[in-house]
Known about the structure:
Layout: H1 2-29, E1 35-44, E2 59-63, E3 66-68, E4 70-75, E5 83-90, H2 101-109, E6 115-123, E7 126-134, H3 137-142, H4 157-166, E8 174-181, H5 201-213, E9 215-221, H6 232-248, E10 253-254, H7 265-276, E11 278-285, E12 292-295, E13 297-300, E14 306-308, E15 312-315
Parallel strand pairs: 5-6, 5-8, 8-9, 9-10
Antiparallel strand pairs: 1-11, 1-14, 2-3, 2-13, 4-11, 6-7, 12-15
Amino acid sequence: MKAQLNKLFYSLLTVAGMSMTSVLAHAATAPSVSVPITMTVTASVDSDKRMPELVREDIAIKRGKESLPVTEWVAAKGDRAGLDLFLLIDDASDSRLALQYDDLRNFINNQPATTRIGVGYMRNGTVQIVQDLTSDHARSANALRLPFGSQGAYGNAYLSVIDLMKRWPDTRNRHEVLMVTDGVDNFRQKSFQRRGLYLSPDVDSAVTVAQKTGTVIYTIYAPGTAPSRRNYWQMTSGQMGIASLADRTGGESFFLGLHQPVSFKPYLDNLQKFLDNQYLVSFSATPGKRPGLHKINVSTEIAGVELFTHDAVWVPVVK
């Protein structure tokens, strides 16, 4: 009787072990759930070079050491050319900024019909929208007004662009911003010493929102009104802040030292080259336990081509 019980026990143990092995083998071979991600990428070459044709096989995306499969690489043209572009002007800018308005109007009016343009003024940590996104470029160009020359109670361009991005209408179009500002954080910097470089913590906050919403930000440095323009450290810190914001969101920062440029046209010509050489890249990423930003690197081995994009993307969880 005891021998029969032992035999039955070992038989059950063997069956249980085989079942567990089968479960583990299935778990090991089951495909991991991934989510699709799409982001805007800008390709750039030296001014004397011709942009080569880029195809999906030329693009590599990595998250750490992990290679992510690229599922689509398509130029932002034709039925994928839709662009929503907001021009944001700092209301604390020197009134001489108006000397650049002809260049800005020409840039706006020369945009293709697939581009919608909005105009807003940054003040009190928010954006006063004077023209909603519209494909009527003349309306957008005519919406430009003189800056007030005052920052308001909460002068902070980073809080302003966050305000805009959080209430931006959800569309399939690319979301991009051109900010004209000195980048000085007049709101928080009052609490810190006036000498020495200072990077506003709101730069990181603005970058996070831009990466989460897929917004590309370009910046043009334009001096503000006194007293900030008389303080070297504040001006340099502001320029450093908007340069960091543009770089980490896939854009570019344009400036000529700490001075008002003679003309915005060279900057806007370069910006146009960026907009004309953009692509939409899609790839698959395995989500974590919680939604969050994942650091990535997008690159190509095509000689002479540099790619600009966010250095992190928002990866949601699978429901």
